[in-house]
Design goal:
Elements: E1 3-11, H1 28-40, E2 47-48, E3 57-67, H2 73-81, E4 88-95, E5 108-117, E6 130-132, H3 138-146, E7 150-153, E8 168-179, E9 182-189, H4 196-208, H5 215-223, E10 238-244
Parallel strand pairs: 3-10, 5-6
Antiparallel strand pairs: 1-3, 1-4, 2-3, 5-9, 5-10, 7-8, 8-9
Helix pairs in contact: 1-2, 3-4
Length: about 280
Amino acid sequence: MAERIALGIEYDGRGFCGWQTQPGGCAIQDHVERALAEIHGVPVHTVTAGRTDAGVHALGQVAHFDALNARPESAWVKGVNAHLPTGISVLWAKPVPSNFDARHRALERAYRYVLLNRPARPAMLAGRVGWVHGALDDQAMAEAASRLLGVHDFSAFRAAECQARSPIRELRRASLTRQGEFLCFEFRANAFLHHQIRNMVGALVWVGLGRRPVEWVSEVLESRNRSLGAATFAPDGLYLVEVRYDASLALPEPSTTMPFFPPHPPLQPPDRPNPP
């Protein structure tokens, strides 16, 4: 009888063509499934919580597969990692109920976008952070981010090729912190649309640079028109940091610490007067 196994996975998105399997075998899913097959003995199919794009990273990706051949949990970690490229690592493996689904049972996803804000482009962190050379107004961006919170039609922030049936999402957190030259955006939602975060970051950066006023973000959101928004921001600084499930599953907590961006209290937007 098959046993369903959940995996926690970390990866550096550089050098891969995103999560979802591709004909050329360059996707993270392709590498993970090939490595699992080496340990399992027969091919397996994985289902993931978030199909991240090319260049997007993960600290807390979650996937599941059905194992026909029993193996110790250590084999699904150490054994699989021995067959993976250095940019991908299985962090943990845990048996889960047969009705567990990494995608459809997820209660919340959390992403982080790390942005380097200085005149010179990054070298050591190239591909791991986004970059803006102009001075940014942090408080204006925090205020603009707060206008995205709640349940909305996010059509103005979804990619044209997005396959989601509905553009309605509940954005539960949209905040930013600064640590020296680094800005860190935090987003939490029940789910995200294709390119939603990169499009929101692009809009917030335009506000921070003074290209648009704070209230413009609300106007774009209400328009439901993608052509009125900012350009899609680079994938370099985007990280899937956590996928949350029912606590009864007792899945391991992801490590979300980044050595170049220690935890710091979020910037709070200024109080807005209540509308008349």
